[in-house]
User: Fold this.
Amino acid sequence: MSASFRTLPVCLFLLLSSPGQAAPPAAAPKPAPTRTVSGPTDAERYARRCQSQTAQRIARPQGTMLWGTKRGWDEKPTDERTSVLVSVALDAPRQAEAGVKALRFENGRLWPVPAPEAGATASDVVGTVLQGTASDGKPVEVALCGAEPAADDPTRVFYRIEAWNPVAREWENPCVALERSPAPRALAVGGVWDASGAHADAADRITFACENGAISKCILWGYAPWATRDGQSLAGLHQACTRLARADYCGNGRSHTRQDTTIDIYDGLGVLERATEVTREWDPAKGSFEAAWAPDGATCLSRTRDGRALEGILQECPGRFQADTADAREDAEACTVRRGDVKPGAALLRNLSYGPPKADPARAR
Assistant:
C-alpha cells in the first residue's frame, strides 16, 4: 500500500440525489376490462431479471448507511436501521446454471458449487438468483447481474445485484445511489449485520454491502475482514470501522454525523495513518481528536462529530461512558468521557474530525 493511500483522509458522504424529471401527461387510455391482479410466476420474474430498469424512484437524503441499501421499497419514512436486504443465503439458489447446487464465499468472492471443470471466473455466478432476507425478516430474491474485478485488486469482485421489489413488481437495484455513484455495486462480505450494527459469522450467509454503505467503504479503505496485516486479522478493525464511519458511539446502530463530513482515520497497524499534508478534503491543522473505537462502538469520546451536546449521547446509552479523569495525553488524544467496561488497548481505530462551527461574534451581538 502506497504512503499516499495510507495517509489519504476519508470523506463520508450522505445521499442527496435529485429526482428525475416527470414525463409529460399522456392521453387518457381507453378503459380496460376489469381483471384480478396477480403477481407474475417465478419463470416470468426470472426472465425479467438483469434487464435495464426505470430510474430511481426514491430520491431523498438517506442519512449515513450501514448496508448502503434502501430502507424500504416505498417512500414512507422509516428508521435508519432498516433495510430491504440484510443477508443472502448461499445454499439452495432459486435459479442457477445447470448443476449448480449452491454458492461458496471466499475472500470477497463467490464461487459456484460444484466448481466447473474448466478454470473458474468471477462471471460463473452471474444469472444466479439467491434467497435473501430484509431487516423485517421478510424474504427477498436477489439476482446476480454482473461481476467486475476491482481495478486495484483483481481478487476483489464488485457485484451488480438486483432485488425483486414486491411493491413495484419489478427487479431493482437495492443499493442507494449517490451523485458520484449513480449505479452502485456491492461487495460480498461474510456473515450478517443486525439492526444494532453488530456482526455475526454465518457459514451459509453473506451480506451484499453496497458501495455507499459503511460495510463496503471500510473494505475499500483497507480493512477487508478476510485479510491480515502482520499476521493479525483485520476483521475486528473492519467492524470497528463500521462504527467509526457512522459515528455510532453507543454501538446501537444509530449514526451521529452529517452530510459531507470529512474525517481522518488511523490505526496501530499502519493500514491508515494520520494525514500530515493539506489536501482539498482535509487540513490537519483544523482537525482534532474525536474518538477511539472498538468493534462495539466508541471506547472514549472527546466530542461529537456533528456538534450536538455530549449529554445527548450519554442519555442515549446511559451508564456506558463516565467522565475521564486521566491526564491528557501528550499527543492531544484527550477524552472527555471513557468507557469503564473495556480493557486498556481495546480501541483498534481512532479518528480526527473538524470541530463544530464556531459562533460568529458579530452575529451574537
Remarks:
- The chain has six helices and 20 strands.
- The mean pLDDT is 84.
- The helical segments are 3-6, 42-47, 214-220, 235-245, 310-316, 361-364.
